[in-house]
Amino acid sequence: MTAFLIDNMAPIMFGALVVFLLLGYPVAFSLAANGLVFGLIGIELGLFGPNFLQAMPERVLGVMSNETLLAVPFFTFMGLILERSGMAEDLLDTIGQLFGRIRGGLGYAVVFVGALLAATTGVVAASVISMGLISLPIMLRYGYDRRVASGVIAASGTLAQIIPPSLVLIIMADQLGRSVGDMYEGAFLPGLMLAGLYAGYIFVVSTFFPTAAPGLPPDAIGFREENGRRGMTSLAILTLASIAFGWLVMLESSTRGADRVVLTMFFAVLFAFAVAVVNVVTTRAFGFRFLSKIAQQATVVMVPPLFLIFLVLGTIFIGLATPTEGGAMGAVGAVALAAAKRRLTLDLVRQAVRATAKLSAFAIFILIGARVFSLTFYGVNGHVWVEHLLTSLPGGEVGFLIFVNLLVFVLAFFLDYFELAFIIIPLLAPVADKLGIDLIWFGVILAVNMQTSFMHPPFGFALFFLRSVAPKFPYRDRVTGLETAPITTGQIYWGAVPFVIIQLIGVAMVILFPQLVMHYKGSASTVDPKTIEIQIAPPETPPALDLR
Fold first, then answer.
1. pLDDT tier at 541, thresholds 50, 70, 90
2. Which segments constitute the TRAP C4-dicarboxylate transport system permease DctM subunit domain (predicted)?
């Protein structure tokens, strides 16, 4: 029996952890308890000495002194301030008006705002709850199918997981031992790709099932000109001019990939803001307005969060600021924007600080528990067991990626992304590195896959967040005065299924097209090292010294 325990300590330890988690014990305490109990068993069986556990305080101290993880509370605070200052409501209202009578317009608006909130909040709960409270009543009011409405809101909220400055990408980079800036840059295009796939689904639904995603009625469209027109031409010209300005500024730049996209958009936003300011000045001073009402409203609402997004991400991408410094700058910027809108109150700051402290403590305690577990797991040669198990899979790199993604997809039914990142990633990363897989690419693949943990019925957290704000009983709509039926839990679950499939398609696309991520490395050198010749001039003979 003793020999069996010694030979199989690693799988027994991992199995015990799974049992604890399935029983419902808190993850942080399950990890730490497993590490300590099996550490004592390992000492008793002679697998290592008592002094082995003396490394534990140093590991815990390493967690507490990790400067990279400081970005987590900074970005969380930034997102909560922006979300609770009413930015989400302004964005949803304005962008919903932009799409107007287009079928599925509100669905497109939710996806677009979800992407913007993801790039500002980085917190799934904040995005889902905000859009659930604001857009769900509007979508029900104008006849959207309940499954389509709930699915697109929950899925768009999960974009906060993959679009920088995502909190899970910070954790992922820390666990993989890679730069957060590289992880952000690598995840930028896959995040936009997922948003595009969500919008594509809305297009398909609105095309083949027009009653499931109708456009807004004429009387629901505001910001019209005096002649009754919407003024969309003015907005289109401003948008094209802004993008052209940003592109011209970056024309001679040597930056490539996501760096170039972010910086181009940053200068485009600056141009749009300058035009909007000039429009306000000329309107007040001379009564002359060259921007339509909808163009002015869209600029005023969208420029501040976009400016903050591209300022923070741009400085991180070009290496001017670390993620921690970028997060601190973003937190200060969020407070400044809330103050500029006259929505900054002591109660708002108190709520944001309390929520930030809770989330940060949650992440740190799980990480400490994971450090305790991994110390004992490595002590019983668990890393060797995992490596032998995964490297013996048929198919090499492809077989490894397929198996790992299936494993993460199944575990996502029971664990959230923090738990997956702290438990699974440290076990998989060494094997991926040994197989020659780029760890940034590997991390982005898993981040897109782990996004499904929010959408899995019946334990998806995004579904729980939406259920908490979706109407459970019939209610009377405040605009139409008509009685509206509630949304059932089954409708929320069925609405999530197509988006889980879309997320799996996203995983496949990132695997099939690595350049979506690998652009973070920039342009490869075209110089052949074998053709390089280094010529060293012979040393000159020093003049003779005259000693006379």
1. low
2. 14-516
Question: What does the block give as tokens for 339?
Answer: 């103050």
Q: What is the pLDDT of residues 485-525, one digit of tens each?
A: 888 888 888 998 999 999 999 999 999 998 888 887 764 43
């700051």: which residue's tokens? 349
Phi, psi angle pair for 532, to nearest 5°? -80, 125
Radius of gyration of the chain measured on its C-alpha atoms: 27
Say how far apart CA 174 and CA 177 lie, in whole Å: 5
Counting beta carbons within 10 angstroms of the beta carbon of residue 58, is it exposed (0 to 12), middle (13 to 18) or buried (19 or more)? exposed
401: three-class secondary structure by DSSP: helix
Work out the average pLDDT over 190-206: 93
Q: Return the higher-pLDDT residue of 506 and 317.
A: 506
Q: What is the dihedral of CA 514, 518, 524, 529, to 10 degrees?
A: -80
Task: Please give, one letter per residue, the 3-state secondary structure of 469-481.
Answer: HCCCCCEECCCCC
Query: Token pair of 281, please?
Result: 């000045």
pTM, 2 dp: 0.80
Residue pointed to by tokens 């577990």: 373
Please state the rounded mean pLDDT for residues 225-250. 84
Residues whose CB is less than 8 angstroms from the CB of residue 369 and which lie 6 or more positions away in sequence, other chains included = 27, 28, 29, 30, 31, 32, 35, 422
Residue with tokens 């409203």: 297
- Give the position of tokens 């940060």: 360
- Of how many residues is the chain composed? 548
